[in-house]
Amino acid sequence: MSCALVLLMTPGLAFFYGGMVRMKSVLNMMMMSVAALGIVSILWVLYGYSIALTKDEGGGLIGGLDAAGLDDTIADTGAALPETVFVAFQLMFAIITVALISGAIADRAKFSTWCVFVVLWASIVYFPVAHWVFHFGDDRNGDGNLVDPGWIVDMGVLDFAGGTAVHINSGAAALALCLVLGKRRGWRKDPMRPHNVPFVMLGAALLWFGWFGFNAGSAAAADNTAGVTFLNTQVATAAAVIGWLIVERIRDGHFTLLGGASGMVAGLVAITPSCNTVNPMGAIGIGAITGAICCAALSLKFKFGFDDSLDVVAVHMVGGLAGTLLIGVFATADAPAGVDGLLFGGGGEQLGKQAVGAFAVMGYSFVVTLILGLILHKTIGFRIDEDAEVEGIDVNEHGETAYELGAVGSPLARPTGGGAGLTHTVGGMAPGTTPRVDA
């Protein structure tokens, strides 16, 4: 059930991202998630699972190829949790991590190059990082003692469901690709408002629903740990919605549905690493703080001049960092992880460990993604040409459009038309800026 819930998150992400772009880009946005579903699933069977989650080949950095092809995983060993179920569950994490990156480069990336990038990034970045974070070691002697875990696990960094491997990892990669591809045509000049906010809400709802499989399912049993993580996931997300909306109201003067949906995702991101380390009050604290921080972080792209189309950096990288680091503050030994943070007299040791793990993943992902992106950009090209971008990436890359508008409304109606309205920073306008009114 948890595998299925996490799989549902990727189509949910497609709706979430698809609603936030202009109507001439919605199909391409969704297709980038579809590509991740298809490509990563095959890579996981061929070698991904083996590299990420089997016998360590030294230093806690990477697994071997002993399980390549998964030939030895399908035998029934009588285990309470069959290996095939674990393989499938972790596959769903790999898929959505790759898909998350796509939101940063909406409207302007060649689909064929994106597919090549998916192969390279999953192989060189995600699979090794998953080994660092999710490989807890092997029972090589059959005595129940696990040896040679991933180096982040071995250090004692707490990350229950992937704040580092999924969110910081994808957020840092998103930032690197923003720099490689550059800004969209008309960024900060033309209105680039979401074309379908109900799609955004639908996607956020599917993500929240599926995230219970993501977090509670990581307990690998229907036990107290699953119950604690389920409850913490709910209340942290609720608190993040409130935190986000308060900042949005103070800054822009409105409570927006787009902001509420974004606050949901920010809270889900933050509680992912910490859901088994805190009590419900701690979860509320993490959610509220992260919702507010992520909303405020939307301004970073305007301050530093990078075009993160759908705010992947602000929500996933910043949210992942906040959730991972706040473990060192809000963790309590009463929670399943059994560690005290600063508020419970644990000192700063755990916070230091969390910082090392978080920034190591962020640095590795950013640097390697930047190199991969530049190589692809300089060889096969990563960005569509200007005419195709202006006309619309859907019709040029995929030969289809999301909506047939020829018989609807005035023949003078423009797809990008409209009046003043949403001032959420998704797109090209700064916080508090009213977009110009199209004729």
TrEMBL record:
Where it sits in the cell: the answer is: Cell membrane; Membrane
**Superkingdom, according to UniProt?**
Bacteria
Any idea which UniProt keywords this protein has?
Ammonia transport, Membrane, Transmembrane, Transmembrane helix, Transport
Which residues are listed as membrane-spanning? 26-47, 85-106, 113-134, 160-182, 194-214, 226-247, 254-272, 278-300, 312-335, 355-376
Stretch forming the signal peptide: none
Membrane topology per the entry is: Multi-pass membrane protein
Q: Where is the Ammonium transporter AmtB-like domain?
A: 2-403
Q: Which InterPro entries match?
A: Ammonium/urea_transptr, Ammonium_transpt, Ammonium_transpt_CS, NH4_transpt_AmtB-like_dom
Primary location group: membrane
Family as reported in the entry's similarity comment: Belongs to the ammonia transporter channel (TC 1.A.11.2) family.
**Protein name listed in UniProt:** Ammonium transporter
What is the species of this protein?
Answer: Sporichthya brevicatena
Phylogenetic lineage: Bacteria, Bacillati, Actinomycetota, Actinomycetes, Sporichthyales
